[in-house]
Each structure stands twice: as C-alpha cells, then as structure tokens.
Amino acid sequence: MYGRDPWGGPLEIHTADSATDDDRSRNLQDFDRAAMSRSLDETQQSWLLGPTEQKKKKYVDLGCIIVSRKIFKWTVGCIIAAALLAGFITMIVKLVPRHKHHNPPPDNYTLALRKALMFFNAQKSGKLPKHNNVSWRGNSCLQDGKSDDSTMFKNLVGGYYDAGDAIKFNFPQSFALTMLSWSVIEYSAKYEAAGELAHVKDTIKWGTDYLLKTFNSSADTIDRIAAQVGKGDTTGGATEPNDHYCWVRPEDIDYARPVTECHGCSDLAAEMAAALASASIVFKDNKAYSQKLVHGARTLFKFSRDQRGRYSVGNEAETFYNSTGYWDEFIWGAAWLYYATGNSSYLQLATTPGIAKHAGAFWGGPDYGVLSWDNKLTGAQVLLSRMRLFLSPGYPYEEILRTFHNQTSIIMCSYLPIFTSFNRTKGGLIQLNHGRPQPLQYVVNAAFLATLFSDYLAAADTPGWYCGPNFYSTDVLRKFAETQIDYILGKNPRKMSYVVGFGNHYPKHVHHRGASIPKNKVKYNCKGGWKYRDSSKANPNTIVGAMVAGPDKHDGFRDVRSNYNYTEPTLAGNAGLVAALVALSGDRDVGIDKNTLFSAVPPMFPTPPPPPAPWKP
C-alpha cells in the first residue's frame, strides 16, 4: 500500500508485517547509537539541545568608556584592597596607645612674664571686668571727676593706680603703656607663644581708654589736660584725708579725690601722645579704634608744641614724679607719631639736631643712657636707630640717624661689665641710678633695650657692634640682660626673688594698701587701716607679679611694709619688667617683627643732597 508523501515522495506502508513493540524499541536504540557515532555540527546540536548560553563579553561598557573585563576586575579589586588596608591602618592608629608629644616646659622668663602682667590687673581702677582674676580687688573710685566741681572732666573713671596708693599719675602711667605697646609691636609672636597676647592687649586698652577721657579727644585743638586724679601731699604734718595719709583699700575710699589739670605741660602731653600712637599700631587691626588713638595722639602732640611747659611745676607731682624737661618727649612722641601715621613732618621734628641738643643727646652726663619714666632720650635713640638699620632713609635724615645709632652703640657698651660707666653691686646688679633707692625700674628698662638692640642687629644680619676698636658679639648684650633679670628673679646674694609670687622666697610685706588689708567685709576708715600698715605680719593678699623697688647698693633688702624704697611696686617698673621678660622668653630664634612698626610708613625715596657750591678760583 502506498500513500502520498506530502513532501513529494512515495510513502510505503507495510501493514501486514508491521514490527512488534520490542522490535521498534530495539531499532530506535540502534538509530540512537548511529546518531551518537557521528559528530553533529553546531546547527544540528542547537536543534537537539535547544538554545545555549551566550559567550561572556570580553569588554565592559562603562558608558563613557569601554574597558577590558580583566582590567576592570583588577581595578575594582585593587580599590577594595586599598580601602580595606586603609581601614586596617586607621583602626591600628586609633587603637594602639600613642605617646603624645609634649612641648618643653616654659622657661623662667615666660613663667615670670605671666605673673608680671597680673600686677596690672591688681592696679585697675573703676568698674572691673568680669574676669579680672584678682579675688581681693573690686570696683573702686567710681566718682572720679564727678566729685571735683572745679574740673571740666567729669568722667575720669578707670585707668591704673600708680603704686601702693590710689593716685592716678598720667605721666608714669603713659610711659608704662608706651613700653607695653613697644614690646607687643616687637615681640607679638613671643606673647602669642606664652599665651599672653590677648592679656597684654587688654591691659594696654584699659589704660588708653582712660587716657582718652583725660582730654577732649574728639577735638583737633585743646587747652588743658587732666594730669592727675587723687592727692598725696602730707607735707607740714597735714592730716586731711588723702591717698597717702589714709591707709584704706581703694574699694573703701570715701574722701575727696581732686583732679589736677595742666594748661602748659609739653612733657606730659607728648608722653601721652607716644602712648596713644604706639597703641594705635598694636590695635591696627581694629581700624576705628586705631584711628581714634591716632587722632588723640595728634591733638596731644600739637598741644605739647603749642603750650610749652613742664607739667610738674607748681604742684605735688614735683615731689613724686618730677619731670626734668620736655625735649626728650618731643623726640620720643614725634618718633612714635611718625611710625603711627607715616607723616614725614614728625620724622623731621624727631631728627632736628636742635631738639636733640636740648634733650642732652650730645653732652652725656651721669644719667646718660638710662631710660626711665622721666627721660626717654635713650628709648628714642634706639627707636630711631631701628629706622636706619632697616629702612636707610638717607638724606636729609642720615646724619642725625647715624649719630643716634652711634650713641646707641656707646650706650650698649656702657652696660657691659668691662666698662666703668656704672658700678655694680657685689651680687652683679648694675647701678644705673648710682646707688640711689629703687634701682630695679631702671635695670629692667636697660635689659629690655639691650635685648632689643641685639635682636635688631641679628635681624639686620649684623653679628655685633664696636666699642672703640673692639668688636663685641650680640650674645654679650643678651648675656647682660639675662644676668640682670636673673638677679631680679632670685640669683642674688639673698636668694630673694623681687617679683612677688615667683619662686619660693619673695617679699611678703609689699607696700600696697589693697594687698595689706584683708577683704573681710569690714570697711576701715582713713586711720583704721594704719594697723595693717604697721603690722609685722605678712600681707593677707598676694599681689602676684609685682616687682618691688629692690635692694640697696650693698645687695641688702628689708622686707618692711613701711619702707617704700624697698617694697613698693610701680606701673612704670612693672612695664619695663614685662618688656624685658618677653624679649628674653621662649625660642631665641623667634626674633623681632621687623615690619609691623613700619606698617604706616610709606616707601622712602631719599632726596638727593644739594649740589656742591660752584668752584671759585
């Protein structure tokens, strides 16, 4: 039987002799073996096995770039390994105990500096700031100015008490502020390293804020200054209550405090101008306040030039802080105003030979080279030598600046022990006041100037200076300063530190009203405090950082409250101490700040000298 093949061929069907099931199965197995014995091409395999998995791509498409899959795997693996390694290292660093790097302990000069600044906190008058850090002091003399009907200055609250009393003398107070500002301008990095920069700037501002109240600081021209608040005259057995006759805490003062005005006081006005001008450089980042200080300094200096006279003539200041002249203040004030303003008219005045002659720059004398609250000539000479060393202004200033520079070199020579300008005690203390009482205030000023001048020379890449034919290293100057300050801090025959609170052996009977009377909520009247003045017991309050007047010319010292020539501290003395200590403190490689003092000085182009006179046969 034949059927029709739908693909066009015959299909034969044998129905009669069809195979059994077993036969069919056996035939199929034969067919399977035959099929397996022959290799199939790829297409045939796909018919039998169905679709196969696609081969993995050899590249990875990252969107913006196509990279090899192998490189991609290596990159990702490296990143993961690096992250794990970094995490492991971080964990080790955080978990393993570390030895912290400790800064070296502060030197003695830094430790003493911190204490010396605290003295000014104890001397503050008026309404005290919240964090004054002197527990036995409080608000005082809040009626200064108002209680005196004769003065036009009705708000004279603030400022500093001068010493162990409660009088406010503007003359030595202004000098103290100038010295503090000078030290900040030169050594701000050292103050910063000691952690005292903000403290010393607050100290200066407390004083300058007060000085601005003592004259009409908003005016361009003035005719008077408040020179002093309080009274201390006890001559002739006077028993009227005042700041010297009474022995009371400043907080308990209830007697009248007169205001002393001056109308012809060139020395005081020029010194106040120096204080405000130097402080304006300290606060140059506070533009408004700095300009206010500069304006006040200009006004005061104009007054000093227009209305000549010594401030101490005819009043009690002649007894306590007598000024011997005002020509040195003219040079000092003009130099500071030049640095504060850049106005060359002040430099012309400061370098006028006639003024220098009147100030004693050319004739010497027993006190030549001694910087003090009275005589600023030596300070002015050093200050103007700085200009010659670093700016070299040339004509027409060169001749007088060279003279000041040479005079400064001679003064530095006089400080050295090999010269005999000044005697020394057996313990090594230089006698700049020739054996008179209260020597330390002059010693600290000299130590500051010596260190400062040595730093000037170092900054000018000059290893030393000449004393006659002999050359001396700047190390010699620094050694002089160190020996003097070390003496004050305890390296002396008595092993006595003359800075209260420094070391273990220091004066305990300081001539100071506030420190000697206990703060026990008892208000003592004028004479009620005398028992504490005359007591042999140590002061109940420690006036930390106060530098007392010092020993006598034989290295002797009497720790007696009633003898102010030994035990009374002063603003001017402590300002010089602070300046000397900061100059010597810390890393010696951290020298002066060469540029800040010149920040307002314009570029200097020396004027060519006049041509020579025509030749005549």
TrEMBL record:
Residues of the active site:
H511, D559, E568
Name the chemical reaction catalysed here: Endohydrolysis of (1->4)-beta-D-glucosidic linkages in cellulose, lichenin and cereal beta-D-glucans
* One Pfam family per UniProt: Glyco_hydro_9
Q: Which residues cross the membrane?
A: 74-96
Tell me the ranges covered by the Glycoside hydrolase family domain, including all copies. 109-581
Report the domain of life of the source organism.
Eukaryota
Q: Recite the UniProt keywords alphabetically.
A: Carbohydrate metabolism, Cellulose degradation, Glycosidase, Hydrolase, Membrane, Polysaccharide degradation, Transmembrane, Transmembrane helix
Q: What is this protein called?
A: Endoglucanase
Species of origin: Solanum pennellii
Specify the taxonomic lineage.
Eukaryota, Viridiplantae, Streptophyta, Embryophyta, Tracheophyta
